[in-house]
Write a structure and sequence with these properties.
alpha/beta; Rossmann fold; 181 residues; five-stranded parallel sheet; globular; 5 strands; single chain
C-alpha cells in the first residue's frame, strides 16, 4: 500500500531549483505507488506562530489563526511522510518553511501531553554553496526531538540561478529517494 507524502516547499521561487528536486522526488514516489501533495508555501498566506498555546481544541482547525495552514493541517495529520524542501538560506531552512513548521505545533497541542504525531521525514535542499553542515545539525536535532524517522536527504550544492540544477545528478538521487519511500 502506498504512503501519503506531504511536501512543504519553502522556496520563494516557483519553478526554481528546489522545485526541480521536488518534481524528481515526486516522480519517483508516485512511480512507486505513493501519493504526493506539495504545498508551495510562498503562495500561501501563513502567519507566524503567536506562542499563545491556544491551539489544540479543534482537531479540524488546531490553530486559532485562520490562514493558509488550514489547508496544510489535514494533509499533515494524514501524512505518513513529511518532506522538508528548501533552498539553503543563511545556512538553514528558509523563513517560509520555518514559519509553517513552527505552526505545526498546534497539532501537538491536540494531544494532552503535547506529543507530536510520529512521522517519517526527508530533506531536499538546493544551494549556491555546498556547506550544509549547520542545517543538517538542525535537521538531525529536529528528528530527534520530534521522534521522527529520517528517510534520507538530497543536498544539492552549486545551483544558484533558476535552472542551474538541470541535468544535475542530484535529480536522479531525489527520484531514487522518492521511489524508496
Amino acid at each position: 500500500m502506498g504512503k501519503r507524502i506531504v511536501v512543504l516547499n519553502g522556496s520563494p521561487r516557483k519553478g526554481g531549483n528546489t522545485s526541480a528536486l521536488i518534481d524528481a522526488f515526486r516522480e519517483g514516489a508516485e512511480g512507486a505507488g505513493h501519493t504526493v501533495e506539495v504545498f508551495f508555501l510562498q503562495g500561501m498566506d501563513i502567519h507566524g506562530c503567536r506562542g499563545c498555546f491556544g491551539g489544540g481544541k479543534d482537531p479540524d482547525h488546531p490553530c486559532l489563526q485562520r490562514d493558509g495552514m488550514d489547508q496544510i493541517y489535514p494533509a499533515y495529520r494524514a501524512a505518513d511522510i513529511v518532506v522538508l524542501a528548501s533552498p539553503l538560506y543563511y545556512w538553514n531552512l528558509s523563513g517560509q518553511l520555518r514559519t509553517a513548521f513552527d505552526r505545526l505545533f498546534a497539532v501537538a497541542e491536540c494531544d494532552p501531553n503535547y506529543a507530536n504525531p510520529r512521522k517519517e521525514c526527508a530533506l531536499l535542499m538546493a544551494a549556491e554553496g555546498d556547506d550544509f553542515s549547520d542545517v543538517e545539525s538542525y535537521y538531525d536535532n529536529l528528528m530527534r526531538h520530534l521522534g521522527w524517522t529520517d528517510r534520507g536527504r538530497v543536498l544539492c550544492g552549486g545551483v544558484m540561478a533558476v535552472g542551474d540544477i538541470s541535468g544535475h545528478e542530484d535529480l536522479d538521487e531525489a527520484r531514487a529517494l522518492g521511489a524508496s519511500m
